[in-house]
Amino acid sequence: MTKILLAEDEEVLRMLVVDTLEDEGYTIDEASDGEEAYELIKENEYDLILLDYMMPVYTGLELIEMIRKLPEHEDTKVMMLSAKSQASDQERVLSAGANYFMSKPFSPMQLIERIETILNEN
């Protein structure tokens, strides 16, 4: 079964994404801030990690750098979700070690399609 971590501090968006992905059959862990996400990452294996750019405690950028230092997660696929969608923001995210970037707002269908594409790579 595919396991995904969603780290998103906006509760309504987090609930929408979790419900949408669970309806598609994915197993979802959720975190409301960067610290909670990091603890889950250290304790679990994930097929994909979805990170909000701006979160309390650790930002998505900080988390990516922390994730990439963990040997068991150096190859884990990471997608940043952000309303900061300037080319410079996307470049910063990808340079930090994210594999993918998705701009907010997005529809649930767009997210599902993107996740399916990512998980079917390789």
TrEMBL record:
Residues 3-119 form the Response regulatory domain. The modification 4-aspartylphosphate is found at residue 52. This is Response regulator. PANTHER family: RESPONSE REGULATORY DOMAIN-CONTAINING PROTEIN (PTHR44591:SF3), STRESS RESPONSE REGULATOR PROTEIN 1 (PTHR44591). PROSITE patterns: RESPONSE_REGULATORY (PS50110). It holds the Pfam family Response_reg. InterPro entries: Bact_response_regulator, CheY-like_superfamily, Sig_transdc_resp-reg_receiver. The keyword Nucleotide-binding does not apply.
